[in-house]
Amino acid sequence: MTMKQYRDYYFKKAKQEHYPARSVYKLQEMDKAYKVFKPGQRVLDLGACPGSWTLYAAKQVGESGRVLGIDLNVPDTVFPAQVVFLQEDIFSQSPKFVEQIRELAPFSVIMSDMAPKTTGNKNTDQARSIQLVEAAFALAETWLDVGGTFIAKVFEGPDVRSFVQSLRSRFAKVTMVKPKSSRSESKEIFILGLSLLDISDENIG
Ligand SMILES: C[S@@+](CC[C@H](N)C(=O)[O-])C[C@H]1O[C@@H](n2cnc3c(N)ncnc32)[C@H](O)[C@@H]1O
Hints:
The chain has 205 residues and is α/β, with parallel strands linked by helices. The protein contains seven helices and seven strands, in the order ααβαββαβαβαββα.
C-alpha cells in the first residue's frame, strides 16, 4: 500500500468506526493475533491521546473492566464509564498518578503507544523512544499482574535488541510485531511481552 492509500484507507475506516485515530488498527491486529483482551480486565494505557487504544480496550474489557488512560494531553474523545483518564507525564510519578494506579492495579495489560516529539535527529528520537519504553516497563514491573501482557511501541534502533533481550527472562514469550496497518516507512515496531512470569519464588531462600 502506498502512503496515500494507507492514509485514505485507515483514515476512512477509523472515521466510519468512530475512532479518533487510525492507530487503533495496530492494536486490533495484535489483539486478534495474540488474544490480548478479555472481559473484566484492568488495562493501563500509556500515551492514550487521542483515545483510540483506550476506546478499543474499553470495548474489549466491557463494563466490568477498567481502562486507565494516561497522557500529557487531554483527549476530546468521550469515553464509556469503565475508562478513567489522567493527564500526567509518566515520568512525574506524582502522588495522584501513583494513587490512581494503585487503586486499579494489578493490571492484566499494560500498553504504551507513547512516542516522543520527534526532533528530526534519528539518534535523539530513538534514544527518547527507548526511554519511554523503559519507563513503561518500569511501571509494568510493579503493576502488571502475573500472566499479564506488556505491549510497547518503540522506534527501531541499536538499543532495542538489548532491551528486548532483558525482557526475555520476565515473560513466557517476547516477540516483536510490525502491524500491517503500520506504515512500512515508519520506524515504529511493537514489543510484546506475553504472560509475565512469577519470579517471586526465585527470591525466596
Ligand atoms: C501516537 S500517540 C498515541 C495514540 C493513541 N494510542 C491512540 O490510539 O489514540 C502518542 C502519545 O504519547 C504521549 N506521550 C509522549 N510522552 C509522554 C509522557 N512522558 N507521558 C505521557 N504521555 C506521553 C503523547 O502526548 C501522545 O499523545
